[in-house]
């Protein structure tokens, strides 16, 4: 990919930052520079907020609801039409295999606009009749109104999908947005600005500001007094800072934060399905999935077989260039993140882990050896208080431990400050219901993983987040509800 400028997108136009500052966009595959990213200043963020405010009272705010929702269907169609442009941009930024991005990131990123447009069209509001002595009574009905200017702070692991997961419902509800993508992955958010202009979305409805977090673009945006709500997906320390910023003005927030997600595999599980599902949950996207599995608890009678079969599957992964059809395992996002993950790999050995497979850096051809590669890694034998077991690594690795009773498995799975997701593998329906209900998580899969109905609530419990999105739950965040009481 030739070097590219990634400019801000404010009030319908791509433009450089006001002070001309840029920083490099680095390819995770080989460490080369693939572009220059323009950094937004405080003045640029102010411009974006003003543009978003103006659009609320301009053609976007006065547009008929059905026309607005139809326009979002057109946005989805234009992303589909430019599928290969979005695919190339996403793969260049993240290094993930084309086989993954083409089946998950781009189609689901586009679908978010259609799905939430249809949710807004089909979800009813409240209506109550009431008796009032001496009158003909009264009626109460609820009105959903846009919340205003929404700051959307996005992660780097699924840049388009997780950005449109927020932008889709925000726009469907009539809000305007200012997106700050991760400094690691600017491309698809920038490209989406072209789509908005092509389909006629009014200027100021969708804005993009690039840059870093503390003391920079992210802080300028989240502390801006005219931003009405903030939605963020990312790591916990940043989420806590955003929560502090949102307290000024009592602004609403939605936080999807870290996880240390467990899987519980019972002896009666379908072994083939459990291995396939756990393989994906531990190693898909090089382990850089907030819903991924890093702790696996396996019932003792099948423990050795499960470990051996998961080892064989991990070692069969094809590591290589994202463009190769048979590649199913790419690099980590950055050198900094690779160093963090390798630090955990070293810590596991120090703590006495048995390295079942992996634990280092794969040998690759010279032209890509300079990228941010690590091996898919499996450990056994660690104590539960090891930081490798307690801390989110966000890499392609997992620790497997045996258990003897259902009660023990539940206790082990819940023994974490996090509570994002879990997976349970069993053919016993009663056990599935019982264990699923007992796990302290926002989302529990049974005999599956990453199977998502977007009408259902999504979010984390405990330290894994605040709030729920998806279906009507997104409407609760992206709108303000006014009750109208009319005495008859």
CATH topology of the largest domain: Aldehyde Dehydrogenase, Chain A, domain 1
Largest sheet: spatial strand order: 15-16-17-14-13-18-19
Q: Determine the strand fraction and express it as a percent band.
A: 15-25%
Q: What is the total number of structural domains?
A: 2
How far is the first residue's CA from the last residue's CA?
67 Å
Largest beta-sheet details: 7 strands, mixed
Number of helical regions: 16
Task: Tell me, rounded to a whole number, the average pLDDT.
Answer: 97
Class by helix and strand content?
Answer: alpha/beta
CATH classification, class level of the largest domain? Alpha Beta
Overall geometry:
globular
CATH superfamily assignment of the largest domain?
Aldehyde Dehydrogenase, Chain A, domain 1
- By DSSP, the count of extended strands is 21
Q: Uncertain spans, ≥5 residues at pLDDT below 50? A: none
Q: What does the model show?
A:
This protein has 488 residues and is α/β, with parallel strands linked by helices. It folds into two domains: 4-257 and 463-487, Aldehyde Dehydrogenase, Chain A, domain 1 (3-Layer(aba) Sandwich), CATH 3.40.605; 261-456, 3-Layer(aba) Sandwich (Aldehyde Dehydrogenase, Chain A, domain 2). The chain has helices at 42-57, 59-62, 65-81, 83-94, 98-122, 159-172, 187-199, 217-222, 236-247, 271-283, 303-315, 335-350, 387-390, 406-414, 429-438, 472-478, and strands at 4-6, 8-10, 13-15, 22-26, 33-38, 127-130, 138-146, 149-153, 176-180, 206-208, 229-233, 252-256, 261-265, 293-299, 354-357, 377-380, 397-403, 421-425, 443-446, 465-466, 479-487. The strands form five sheets. The chain has a seven-stranded mixed sheet with strand order 15-16-17-14-13-18-19, sandwiched between helices. A six-stranded mixed sheet has the order 10-9-8-11-12-20, sandwiched between helices. Helix 13 (387-390) links the parallel strand 16 and strand 17 (397-403). Helix 5 runs parallel beside helix 6 and helix 10 crosses helix 11. The longest helix is centred in the first third of the chain and has 25 residues, at 98-122. The radius of gyration is 23 Å and the shape is globular. It starts with a strand and ends with a strand. The relative contact order is 0.14. The mean pLDDT is 97.
């Amino acid at each position: 990919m030739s070097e590219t400028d990634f400019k801000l997108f404010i009030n319908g136009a791509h433009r450089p930052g006001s002070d001309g500052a840029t920083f490099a966009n680095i390819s995770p595959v080989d460490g080369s520079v693939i572009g220059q990213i323009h950094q937004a200043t405080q003045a640029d963020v102010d411009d974006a907020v003003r543009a978003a405010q103006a659009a609320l009272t301009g053609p976007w705010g006065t547009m008929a609801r059905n026309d607005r929702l139809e326009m979002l269907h057109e946005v989805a169609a234009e992303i589909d039409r430019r599928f290969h442009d979005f695919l190339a941009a996403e793969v260049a930024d993240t290094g993930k295999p084309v086989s993954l991005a083409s089946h998950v990131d781009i189609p689901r990123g586009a679908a978010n606009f259609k799905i939430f447009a249809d949710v807004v069209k089909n979800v009813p509001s409240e209506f109550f009749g009431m008796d009032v002595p001496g009158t003909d009574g009264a009626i109460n009905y609820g009105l959903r109104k846009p919340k205003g200017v929404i700051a959307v702070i996005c992660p780097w692991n699924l840049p388009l999908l997780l950005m449109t997961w927020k932008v889709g419902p925000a726009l469907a509800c009539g809000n305007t947005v200012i997106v700050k993508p991760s400094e690691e992955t600017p491309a698809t958010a920038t490209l989406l600005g072209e789509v908005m202009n092509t389909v006629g979305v009014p200027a100021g409805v969708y804005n993009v500001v690039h840059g870093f977090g503390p003391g920079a673009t992210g802080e300028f945006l989240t502390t801006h007094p005219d931003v009405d709500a903030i939605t963020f997906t990312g790591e916990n320390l940043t989420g806590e800072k955003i929560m502090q910023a949102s307290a000024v003005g009592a602004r609403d927030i939605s936080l999807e934060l870290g996880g240390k997600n467990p899987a519980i595999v019972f002896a009666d599980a379908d072994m083939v399905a459990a291995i396939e599902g756990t393989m994906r949950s531990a190693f898909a996207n090089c382990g850089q999935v907030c819903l991924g599995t890093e702790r696996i608890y396996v019932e003792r009678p099948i423990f050795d077989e499960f470990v051996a079969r998961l080892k064989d599957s991990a070692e069969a992964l094809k590591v290589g260039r994202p463009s190769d059809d048979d590649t199913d395992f790419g690099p980590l996002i950055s050198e900094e993140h690779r160093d963090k993950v390798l630090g955990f790999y070293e810590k596991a050995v120090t703590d006495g882990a048995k390295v079942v497979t992996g634990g280092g850096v794969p040998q690759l051809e010279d032209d890509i050896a300079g990228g941010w590669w690590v091996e898919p890694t499996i450990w056994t034998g660690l104590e539960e208080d090891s930081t490798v077991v307690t801390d989110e690594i966000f890499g392609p690795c997992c620790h497997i431990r045996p258990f003897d009773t259902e009660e023990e498995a539940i206790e082990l799975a819940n023994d974490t400050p996090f509570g994002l997701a879990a997976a349970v593998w069993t053919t016993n329906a009663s056990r599935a219901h019982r264990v699923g209900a007992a796990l302290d998580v926002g989302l529990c899969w049974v005999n599956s993983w990453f199977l998502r109905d977007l009408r259902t609530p999504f979010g984390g419990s405990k330290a894994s987040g605040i709030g729920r999105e998806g279906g009507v739950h997104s409407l609760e965040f992206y709108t303000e509800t006014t009750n109208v009481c009319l005495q008859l």
